[in-house]
Amino acid sequence: MTETLHETRLVVNGVPRTVRVPARRLLADCLRVDLGLTGTHLGCEHGVCGACTVLVDGQPMRSCLMFAVSADGAEITTTEGCRAPDGGLGPVQQAFQECHGLQCGFCTPGFITTITAYLRDNPAPSEAEAREAIGGNLCRCTGYQNIVKSVLRAAEIQGEVVP
Amino acid sequence: MFGEPIARREDPRLVSGAGRYLDDLGPSALAAAFVRCPHAHARVTDIDVTDALDVDGLVAIYTYDDLADDTATRVAEPLPLLIPHPALTQPRTAYALVKDVAKHVGEPIVMVVATDRYVAEDICDRIRVSYEFLPPVVGVAAAREARHAVHADVPDNVAAHLLQEVGDARAAIAAAPHTLELDLEIERSASMPMEGKGVYARWDAADASLRVYSSTQTSTSVRFALAAKLNIPVDRVEVIAPDVGGGFGVKIVHPWPEEVLVPWAAIRLDREVKWSEDRREHFVSSAHERGQQQKIRVGFDDDGRILGLDVEFWHDNGAYTPYGIIIPIITSTQLLGPYKPGAYRVEFRSLYTNTVMVTPYRGAGRPQGVYAMERTMDAIAARLRLDRAEVRERNFIQPHEMPYDHQLTFQDGRPLIYDSGDFPASLEKLKKLVDWDGFAAYRDAARAEGRRVGIGLACYVEGTGVGPYEGAHIRVESSGKVVVSTGLTTQGQGHETVFAQIAADELGVPVEDISVTTGDTRRFKYAVGTFASRAAVMSGNAVALTARKVRAKALRIAAEALEADPGDLEITDGVVRVKGHPPGASGGEIPLRTVAVLSNPLRYAFDEESKRATQFAVGSSDKPPVDEDDEPGLEATDYYSPMQATFANGMHAAIVETDPETAEIKILRYCVVHDCGPMINPRIVEGQVHGGVAQGIGGALYERIVYDENGQLLNASYMDFLIPYASEVPVIETDHLETPTPLNPLGIKGAGEAGVIPGSALLASAIEDAEGITITRMPISPSDLFHLRQGATE
Amino acid sequence: MKVSGNATLNAPVEKVWAALNDPAVLVRTIPGCEQLEEVERDAYRMTVTAGVASIKGSYAGDVRLTDQQEPHAFVLKASGAGGPGTVSADVKVRLVDGGDGTTVLSYDADAIVGGMIGGVGQRILTGVAKKTAAEFFHAVDAVLTGAPVGVVSPAAVPGTAAPAVYVAPAGAVRAGVIGGDFAKGAVFGAAVALLGALVGGWAAGRRAR
User: Fold this and answer.
1) Candidates 3.90.1150.30, 3.40.630.30, 3.10.20.30, 3.40.50.460; CATH matching A5-81
2) How large is the ipTM?
3) How far apart are CA B195 and CA A44, in angstroms?
4) What is the pLDDT of residues B543-556, one digit of tens each?
5) pTM, full prediction
6) Which residue in B45, B159, B247, C25 could disulfide with B491, CB within 3.0 to 4.6 Å?
7) Which of the four CATH numbers 3.40.50.720, 3.30.70.1060, 3.40.50.2300, 3.30.530.20 does domain C2-204 have?
């Protein structure tokens, strides 16, 4: 009993990729294993912790709750895709480093993508808004203090807010 | 660099998705999965794999019988008892796969190896195990009652019984003007790092050597354990902790069944094998902590000074005791906090239940002890109508009484002697930070608005930096780069940064030129592990001592090259120069990288720089190229081994608001004053405190492990086990005191667990203050509070 | 490793014994059997092929008979080797009248498995061995109850003294392929070698009389 494989086309971090995966392959596993993009992490596999969050056509989605085949034709952005064009740290990533917004780093990819999308739509959040924006991602290490600061700093870096 | 809040060196790879966590490794490895017992107490009577045999991708299926057949190894023996203790008279540990009787939901019975995890789980689903049910024992009360036994040969379910006392507490209480009795309860939570456990093993048959990657807090100890279990010489086993996504204590236990079985399978199959657990597995097969029932009797005088303190508690250790009785011992000793009761008696029984085992979770027994003591302090204050801070102050050990000997034995087997700390000063800072004295007015104003607010306070002392030792190796390469290795591990504490900061200071080298490796037995073999807030104290000091050795050697070699006296030399920015010599001017300076080249007399040059050290360039005929008591290379190894733990302390205050109708609990302010001595990197220390506070809040208000009477874990997922999101954790206000310790060269104390320790005690105190209802059980939910209110009005 | 089991065959003991001794029956009922060859008295060589998914393997088995008590019992010593591993086994076989014209056959094998396949775990080895045995007995039972059996001609010239070699006809009934992979294919092959050797031994032993 071998599973049927489905050809699935994705554009991941700007690069067209084609994979042949069984229907039940999670998008998270497809990204991590079939495409070797291990930046996206699995913390719970039931959609609560948010570590697996990637952007699907610009929207933050739990990749542990999606099948890869259902993302056929979509544009996907992972944490690797949030780097700067020259391969250095992107604004959100840089903000995390400046503000000590991570400790073990396992939950960080989900925050990076979530915040990237959030700031695109809300470039100048208040502290309360920043806190709410990250309210769907779990972190066990930081107590969130510096993650909130990272959101605000990322907004600054992106130039929308004068520091 | 010491004291500088520099940005972390490990961050660039971690924020950009280039971290290497366990499951990121070994993409072509076979995948392992387990059939785990779904019953709390059951004898396995049959394992039928017939339906699994025709699954495409099956590679192997193992049960205990396969372990028993392998007489060349010791995998059929129970997993080791890590920390024996004379009072632990009935220790029990598990087998790597269930042998006859499973004793908690989640014990692994069958190991499946397949081409990938999806297939492995398909195979697990098709394996049919038959059971004979046995009566489960769940909860401290049932364990104490002992109508049934978890282990047939331990009929009273008591694994250990320990009594420690100083003075005659019972007599003191009997003679005291006031006495109080408290019955308290605190329930289980769990570490819950975002990354679960994982093991990836590679066997090299040609070399008969094993390499194991494990998401562990102690690669050196896993190495010893695997060498012993698999009967492989230790120097043929290497264990590496890759990037680890959090530990918080649960990853210090070792070897997990999977840590033994995955390498064992890799050897048998001569294939790479990998296992990463999923979240449900973690809930039912790792470890929990915090569950205790406590009975306290205290005698005190009119001023609220404790004359005698008599504590009896019952500790739920789950089905097995691999970590010994460390947690209840810590509860027993750290319960004392910053206080000096006249006489103290503490007695505990550690009990078996048919639930996941209990091993350290950040705090490791301290939260329970602090809970007992701080609730007692509040009760004394309530009885005497005294200010709660005042009562505590009156019981403080005073700075001039340091070092203070409690005459008890701590968890490291050494005397419980506080080395330094200024408790009155810490409390003063905290009161100011939270405006303790102004709260009454705040409360009145709130009451006028129909709001219910309360303030709470909790103090703790934390023994940190326990031994036996840690070590470091430092080498200056001929490129000028400095390579630092230490054996303990990292799970987000920023070790790559703080140890580089220490080395940079001691060596006079820019921090950017220093790289740090932790947790890799290929690089450093003698270590204990990362736990009990010890890494900075232990490895930090080891790095400092080692760097001093390297520096001394560098100065010696440079002195010869510069024809100067070592005492006249200094190192700054990676250059050794004569003090006062202008930088850049020739003759009085030599770069460290050149010193490194000169440290290794060569016959064969390998690059331009190294030509300087070849035999026709250096050396003199009146002595050998390498002195008798010297070694080639600008490198050194050293160890730090402490006489005893060093005691950090902290005090937290919180203002809460409770909703008069819905009993919803909100934290308005959370204030922390903590003292871990001088801080290597204040931002990293603060981050540790923040994280701990979030776990303390979680444990007080949201997290609770819930077993039903059949031993079924009812909330084995994040949907039902509530870890706080950002919305549940308020802004944390911190202030510091820094009382150095005389006990180690850097004068530092640990801080890793600080934030979590007083959480339950603190919030119980604050909610009690808001509500005027005595709180004895934690955690507390709005629903619990609602019912307490109803009970109070009846 | 110990494998034992039994099967009920729908024929009296003597007919079962005869069928099990007929190379024409065996070569087409042993799962994967390709040929049987008499090497010397009471010793035979058998080739089986096991094919699963990506792995096909040929296994050569040697068989020796001892302790024959026609038509009720004998002991068979077999060993088979293929790419991924080796099997050697001692098998006790008993045929007992089951009443109503049936026979209850029981076998008790004590096997040592080595090489790669030795690593896959007892449950797979015994599971596959039992499955294979069941398939074999099912096929034999079909023969006994009248399903047509294709004629197989010995490769040797009739009437010569050369040892006979029996070859499976094309399209012979084969045991169902168990979907799976490398090691399981190996296991299957080895288990087949084991069973094939054991049954080949019966046939050969019988023929020798």
Assistant:
1) 3.10.20.30
2) 0.96
3) 9
4) 999 999 999 999 99
5) 0.90
6) B247
7) 3.30.530.20
